[in-house]
Amino acid sequence: MTSVVATNQTILVVGGGISGMTAALEAAETGKQVVLVEKNPYLGGRTVQLYRYFPKMCHPTCGLEINLRRLKANPRIQVLTMAEVTGITGDKGAYNISVKLKPRYVNENCTACGECGKAVKTEIDDAFNYNLGKIKAAYLPSSMAFPQRYVIDASIVGGACGAAAKAACKYGAVDLDMQEETVTLNAGAIVWATGWQPYDASKIVYYGYGRFKNVISNVEFERLADPHGPTGGKILRPSDGKEARNVAFIQCAGSRDENHLRHCSRFCCMGSLKQTHYVQEAFGDAGKSTIYYIDIRAIDRFEDFYQKVKANPNVNFVKSKVARITEDKDGNPVCNGVNVEGYKRYAQAHDLVVLALGMEPSVKGVQIPAEVMSDSSGFIMADPANAGIFGAGCATNALDVNRAVQSATAAALRAIQVVNKVARAEA
Amino acid sequence: MSDMNTQMADRYKNNFLKEIEEQAEMGEWVKMCMQCGLCSGSCPTNFHTGWDHPPQEIFMLIRAGKREEVLNAQGMYMCTSCYNCYVRCPRKVPVTHVMHGIAEYAYRIGRAPKNQPSMHLSKTFWTNATKNGRVNEVQLTQSLYFKDGIGAGIKKAMEMQSVALGLVKAGRLNLLEAVGIAHKCKDVKGIHAMLAKAEELEAKNKAAKAGTTGKE
Q: Which of A155, A276, A406, B55 has the fewest CB within 10 Å, making it most exposed?
């Protein structure tokens, strides 16, 4: 059984992405007891799935490394991975929370040596790489996964592959008898940081995502560019593995659309501008990018970044929302539409189309097992009547990493105030 | 009717957007357009030569006060009411209805082109359908076939002969409709009374908008 030490002065952080980690660390570093609950087998959320950050084009591994070091050094944070909050009862200062823990089938003896992975034959979809490839059913989610422990997929437990994994482990780390369990814990305040998910691209029917292999999403493109990704960092298109030297980016794929996401997702313009750098870096002057846009919203202080990309002769900007994607006889996706500057019809073939998908909350307001107020997109809103649960990061709004961290720090401060009050009352 | 045109031009002087908003049906949606171009790209008639200005360009021309360009445009008459633009518009602008609203307004102030085919169809269909409360298909097709003269009409009719015969055999077409013996709705008088009332209300409404009568 997993034991959790938690009192009414504990802060529960739901979600272990960049926002949740930040909120947990900020609170713990002021001396508070924190329980951090994460659904995936690893921390870092969608941030670890990025190749690079804008605007400095640095690698997320760097910032995460610092956070993980802070986490390891802090005895006040208890991390529960493969865990989901299933119920919240009580009120500010005295919440009672139930958490469902899925079995990892690997205990803390694991040294991440990889022998179980070699022994297992079965392959499963590589969720970390947005199912762009396959991985063994005994796997380390990513090279910098925390906790640095393998996971055995439930599908091989009870089969020959499961037994092979157990036999291969020299440290007695594989435990196929692990069961799903539910733990209950107390907390005085809750930080809800369940983050975001890309909008379901197949709902934008006229872009043919799912029908055309060479129409992919912006998050998938991050994985293609990443050396740890399924192509080893080569930008190869899915249909035939050809180098994608002529890449189209379609902005507002889902965002700013009453039929899809009502809000501007804010990060996708910068995301695509950033991704033109990947094309330029991979192919030099032979790499061409085309950005189809309604208007470029380089939020905050990023106008400068936009101007630099605009000055690159290998990046073409077309002011038009693409109306339809078709495929030519060579399997190239063709963007069809009418250019707003001149109102001319175009049908432009590219090697690869990247949809700059918008952001929606991965857990919408109504799905949270507690009374929280949320807007029409499902993002958590501040609610004076509910003073013990605070949204952080992309659960509250469409944010980039920088703003998510700010939001998380703010949420941590609010949670600290609640538990401080509890502490005074109990003293 | 051209008086009406000058009258409106004078009344709204340099504010064509306001003119469209107040006078054309659904015109108030024009300002909601964000110029993304999804409507034009989705339009099935956008390859047509008559398609001089696509919808979002018409919206922009209206907002730029280009009255002559818009009223001389052909784009809005080309609409086939497929509703692709309407269902896809990210701002939920009823593009189809706005196009029809502008076309109707242009017609009302006497600026619609003469013998515009889709306008001819609309008028013919309306007269035909309202007469008996049901469409007289034979007379409707006749009037459309013979629109460009007797020779062209006969040629077209010969082309469609087998289709017509098939319809007759299947009991879907009554040739007696040609001489006016057509199927009617049960209460023709009721329909006429209803349409007359609707026309009266609409005329009052439009007159109020035009500022000629009904103004307090």
A: A155
Closest-approach residue (CA) in chain A for B38: A323
Query: Angle at which helices A401-426 and A18-28 pack, to 10 degrees?
Result: 40
Distance CA A55, CA A57 (A): 6
Q: Can you tell me the mean pLDDT for B25-39?
A: 94
CATH code for the domain of B15: 1.10.1060.10
ipTM above 0.90, yes or no: no
| CA pair distance A108, A106, nearest whole angstrom | 7
Domain identity same for B66 and B132: no
Q: Mutation target for A interface from B33, B35, B38, B74: give the one with most A CBs within 10 A.
A: B38
Cβ atoms of residues A408 and A26 within 8 Å? yes
Domains plus CATH for chain A? 10-101+180-195+362-426 (3.50.50.60), 115-168 (no CATH), 199-359 (3.50.50.60)
Mark the ranges of chain A whose per-residue pLDDT is less than 70. Answer: 1
Q: Domain of B107?
A: 2-113
Q: Give the pLDDT confidence of A334-389 residue by residue, as tens digits.
A: 999 999 888 888 999 999 999 999 999 999 988 889 889 999 999 999 888 877 99
Cβ atoms of A260 and A204 closer than 8 Å? yes
Work out how many CB contacts closer than 8 A connect A with B: 63
Specify if B145 maps to a domain. Answer: yes
